[in-house]
């Protein structure tokens, strides 16, 4: 067809006229405005209603802060710090505020599950409980009750006590709790001041704080209590000296940051002791020169820890070491603390002993602003456990020194002594070092029951999961951590919302199992439910506990002045070293406790992950900190992809060049690389515990590793 | 005849953040997110599209190990006063929809989501990157929408959002005062969520017009110079742009105060005691 000028114009005009009358234009405009702004339907409209406030206790970490929950029409909408609470005084950390993201998380375990083949299937509570009872009865029938074990996140509290009691009357002494710095402080206190003592630090009232790498404002002790203490410290001009190889937030907020070669903290502490003894500036009222253990200690530090030698080992300037010693000794109420980062793992026995020796020399034991040594306060009054002959026999069998040694043994052979394991408030397959080995050990245990709210790394390995209530759905007594706070407090967690899913209190779950076992075991659990049990075992304090929500058990140091035995320090203790051959692994990998990343059994919330810097997580990659000097040597630049290799594993990472870390170190955040079914927090970065091998200390049997030899190369 | 409408008292709400107290713990960020129904996505590591009304930046003094120092700087919306009603804050000046405006009775820079049509001029104008665009509809995992607060409306795709100084808390306090037949609200009755949450007590919030308020005593705003702080340790971000923020920072450290603006070589020495 020939298109002449006339028909071209005609067609053109027709097209214009057609477009003008066509509804397409209007329709497209309308669509695009709906596309860019859709007001209705797609957005949730929060329902309004009556506003109420209820108090409870947060149990996401050991801090046990008091919380106030704002509710609208029965829905919990906000968590805030409880103003009049003795621990956190209205303060709260980011994980606590984000607590509702755990409560309403659709990836929670919604009902009891049983593993069939390699997948989980939903079962009823009754079936789950009777299945467990059957397995346990079979174990008891084989006269091997000691082959059941339990690992719990905490040693104190009525729920842990119920599990301990269950194991005891069943016939097993294999109840373990996850070790933390509290465990090492307890050992230190027991060795230096007599058995079954605990230690706590009255930092609130100290006038000088010497911290050996404790992340004082990064989650150490009772985190919010420490935040508050730190803020008050600045007002009162109380100095904090922070000794650690990396510029952490605590180091940045301290009056002085003293970088030290990692693993030489004990040497520094003993060097300081040497100066203080040598110059006779220790507290003569509490240390007697005639004390034979003190004499031995003086001799040891004079011989092996001269300031010159210590300066060389630690890499700290001699003059600075002397200045620290003087500052500490001359301070009115000095205190020395240890427990690296959050103190989530057991510490180096020698380091803790050496640091506590400083406290002893300062004479701050059981004084205001000092170190409080006291007997463990057990506020729970359980009726005496009655055991039958099988139970008595089983209970008297030797136990492992620690859960680490149990795992070590079980990982070695599939024919293990442990036939069944209960996992309570803990996630050992994630939090323990060399997690691949821990997973292997779990596979060697024939029957595992997990009491968990989330499908975490350990729950995934279980045969039966009994899903537990979150902290806003249940009653529970929550005791404060021992080392972190002197005011020994117990708070009451209260159910503020109806259970979202078909879950139960772990206390009720163990009562159900006990009752299903019948006989002697059932007789030891006479309570109809956990709440009744809690009321009866806390009977002395229940009325004030339920009334106020917390009870302060002790807030004064003991009047007794315990004697000090320095032999613990002179007893040939060895500092824990980074494992691995320095030739193939020239660098040292250390873990970083970042306050915004939850490092323990519970993963971070979506909000918490959102606050993490893009210099820590980028996409699904984790960034590791390298000093520019270290990076240059490895020919790495900021943002480069790299591979870290250690004697136990390797991982792909990205590089964050940071001036604040000591050359020769690789710093990696703890708490990432989770494998939950929660896409907002899982599969980001690497779990550092896969890269670090445990260093089991011979005495305590606990893993006191703080790092490992490593290498890094560009990929 | 011009008749003045009576709305009760006129406030000028502001915030002072003590950077020497801030520990970078991030409580303010999460307190803000949970108070204001801020959504979250699978990947929040692209910080340009990660909505965080309150964002904590990490500053370093640039020195090498072991002389490195770090400082955290929380950044809410600065609620700039501008100079006067004809020269308001940068975002208010450019908004073609009057979706963002300065409230004359509180000094708070508002953001009205239903008016905003997403042109993002305000984001280009804001020198503090305090504004965020909703590139997607917010999605809460099933059941998690239960924790949303009815006091703050969730935002839809295609609009800009930012810190409101928890304006709904002001409304609540005002309602309370009205019921109790008071003209004025008390200092402690209206505090933002971040101020309340900060465990280090680094944030102070209150009325910059009221000499009895802690913030006034802390920064000593100069009414003749658009609220410029008279406390030599206090400063405002990018002071010389004359946006006149109502958010002040306090630090004893000179390098921290210097990071509040961009200075030519040698320029800081001239201005350090009176900030331009």
**End-to-end distance of chain A, in Å?**
64 Å
Can you say what the CATH homologous superfamily of the domain at 181-375 in chain A is? Answer: Dimethylsulfoxide Reductase, domain 2
**Count of beta strands of chain A:** 26
CATH architecture of the domain at 181-375 in chain A: 3-Layer(aba) Sandwich
Per CATH, which architecture of chain B?
2-Layer Sandwich
The number of helical runs of chain B is 8
Shape of chain B: globular
Give the % helix of chain B.
Answer: 10-25%
Strand order of the largest sheet of chain B: 6-1-10-9
Radius of gyration of chain B: 19 Å
Structural class of chain B: alpha+beta
What is the rounded Rg of chain A?
A: 29 Å
Low-confidence stretches of chain B: 1-5
Helices of chain A, by number, come to 25
Q: Could you give the count of β-strands of chain B?
A: 10
Q: What does the main sheet of chain B amount to? A: 4 strands, mixed
Walk across the major sheet of chain A and give the strand order.
5-4-16-15-14-6-7
Beta-strand percentage of chain A?
15-25%
CATH fold name of the domain at 181-375 in chain A: Dimethylsulfoxide Reductase, domain 2
């Amino acid at each position: 067809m020939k298109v002449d000028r006339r028909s071209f114009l005609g067609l053109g005009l027709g097209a214009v006229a057609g477009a003008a009358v066509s509804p397409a234009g209007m329709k497209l405009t309308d669509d695009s405005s709906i596309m860019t702004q859709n007001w209705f339907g797609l957005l949730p409209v929060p329902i309004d209603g009556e506003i109420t406030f209820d108090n409870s206790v947060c149990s996401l970490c050991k801090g046990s802060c008091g919380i106030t929950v704002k509710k609208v029409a029965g829905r919990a909408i906000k968590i805030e710090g409880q103003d009049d609470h003795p621990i956190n005084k209205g303060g709260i950390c980011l994980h606590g505020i984000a607590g509702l993201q755990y409560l309403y998380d659709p990836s929670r375990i919604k009902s009891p599950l049983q593993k069939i083949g390699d997948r989980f299937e939903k079962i009823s509570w009754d079936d789950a409980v009777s299945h467990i009872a059957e397995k346990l009865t079979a174990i008891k029938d084989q006269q091997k009750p000691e082959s059941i074990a339990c690992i719990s996140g905490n040693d104190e509290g009525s729920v842990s006590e119920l599990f301990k009691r269950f194991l005891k009357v069943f016939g097993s002494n294999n109840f373990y709790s996850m070790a933390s710095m509290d465990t090492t402080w307890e050992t230190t206190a027991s060795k230096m001041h007599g058995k079954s003592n605990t230690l706590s630090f009255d930092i609130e009232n100290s006038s000088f704080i010497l911290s050996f790498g404790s992340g004082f404002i990064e989650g150490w002790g009772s985190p919010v209590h420490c935040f508050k203490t730190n803020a008050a410290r600045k007002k009162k001009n109380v100095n904090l000296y922070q000794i650690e190889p990396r510029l952490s937030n605590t180091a940045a907020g301290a009056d002085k940051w003293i970088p030290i070669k990692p693993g030489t903290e004990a040497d520094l502490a003993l060097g300081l002791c040497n100066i203080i003894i040598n110059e006779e500036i220790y507290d003569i009222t509490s240390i007697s020169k005639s004390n034979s253990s003190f004499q031995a200690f003086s001799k040891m530090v004079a011989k092996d820890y001269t300031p010159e030698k210590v300066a060389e080992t630690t890499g700290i300037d001699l003059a600075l070491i002397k200045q620290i010693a003087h500052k500490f000794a001359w301070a009115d109420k000095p205190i020395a603390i240890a427990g690296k980062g959050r103190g989530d793992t057991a510490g180096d026995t020698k380091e803790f002993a050496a640091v506590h020796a400083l406290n002893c020399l300062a004479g701050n034991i059981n004084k205001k602003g000092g170190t409080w040594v006291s007997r463990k306060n057990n506020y729970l009054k359980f009726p005496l456990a009655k055991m039958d002959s099988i139970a008595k026999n089983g209970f008297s069998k030797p136990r492992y020194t620690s859960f680490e040694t149990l795992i070590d043994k079980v990982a070695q052979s599939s024919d293990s002594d442990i036939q069944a394991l209960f996992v309570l408030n803990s996630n050992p397959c994630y939090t323990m070092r060399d997690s691949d080995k821990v997973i292997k050990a779990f596979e060697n245990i024939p029957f595992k029951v997990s009491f968990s709210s989330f499908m975490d790394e350990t729950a995934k390995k279980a045969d039966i999961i009994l899903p537990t209530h979150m902290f806003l759905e249940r009653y529970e007594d929550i005791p404060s951590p021992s080392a972190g706070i002197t005011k020994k407090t117990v708070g009451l967690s209260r159910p503020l919302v109806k259970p979202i899913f078909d879950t139960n209190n772990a206390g009720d779950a163990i009562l159900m199992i006990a009752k299903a076992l019948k006989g002697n075991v059932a007789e030891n659990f006479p309570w109809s439910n956990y709440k009744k049990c809690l009321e009866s075992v806390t009977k002395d304090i229940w009325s004030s506990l339920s009334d106020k929500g917390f009870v302060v058990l002790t807030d004064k140091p003991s009047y007794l002045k315990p004697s000090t035995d320095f032999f613990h320090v002179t007893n040939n203790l060895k500092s824990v070293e980074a494992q691995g051959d320095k030739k193939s692994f020239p660098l040292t990998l250390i873990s970083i406790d970042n306050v915004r990343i939850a490092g323990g059994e519970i993963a971070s919330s979506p909000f918490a992950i959102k606050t993490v810097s893009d210099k820590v997580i980028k996409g699904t990659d984790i960034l590791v900190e390298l000093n520019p000097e270290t990076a240059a040597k490895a020919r790495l630049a900021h943002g480069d992809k790299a591979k870290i290799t250690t004697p136990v594993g390797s991982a792909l990472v990205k590089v964050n060049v940071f001036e604040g870390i000591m050359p020769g170190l690789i710093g990696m955040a703890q708490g990432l690389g989770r494998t939950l079914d929660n896409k907002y927090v899982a599969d980001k970065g690497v779990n550092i515990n896969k890269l670090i091998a445990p260093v089991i200390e011979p005495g305590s049997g606990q893993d006191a590793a703080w790092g490992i030899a490593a290498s890094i190369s560009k990929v | 005849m011009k008749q003045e409408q009576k709305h009760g008292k006129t406030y000028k709400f502001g915030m002072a953040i003590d950077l020497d107290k801030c520990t970078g713990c991030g409580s303010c960020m999460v307190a803000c997110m949970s108070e204001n129904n801020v959504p979250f996505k699978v990947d929040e590591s692209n910080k340009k599209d990660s909505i965080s009304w309150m964002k904590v930046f990490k500053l370093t003094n640039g020195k090498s190990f072991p002389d490195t120092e770090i400082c955290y700087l929380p950044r809410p919306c600065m609620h700039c006063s501008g100079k006067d009603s004809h020269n308001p804050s940068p975002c208010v000046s450019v908004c073609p929809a009057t979706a963002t405006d300065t409230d004359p009775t509180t000094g708070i820079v508002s953001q009205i989501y239903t008016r905003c049509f997403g042109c993002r001029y305000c984001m280009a104008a804001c020198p503090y990157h305090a504004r965020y665009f909703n590139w997607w509809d917010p999605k809460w995992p099933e059941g998690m929408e239960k924790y949303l607060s009815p006091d703050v409306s969730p935002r839809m795709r295609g609009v800009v959002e930012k810190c409101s100084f928890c304006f709904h808390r002001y409304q609540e306090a005002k309602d309370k005062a009205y019921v109790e037949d008071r003209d004025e609200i008390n200092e402690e009755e209206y505090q933002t969520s971040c101020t309340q949450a900060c465990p280090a007590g680094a944030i102070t919030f209150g009325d910059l017009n009221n000499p009895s308020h802690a913030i006034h005593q802390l920064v000593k705003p100069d009414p003749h110079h658009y609220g410029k702080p008279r406390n030599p340790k206090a400063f405002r971000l990018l002071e010389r742009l004359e946006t006149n923020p109502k958010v002040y920072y306090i630090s004893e450290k000179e390098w921290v105060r210097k990071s509040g603006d961009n200075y030519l070589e040698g320029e800081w020495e001239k201005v350090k005691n009176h900030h331009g």
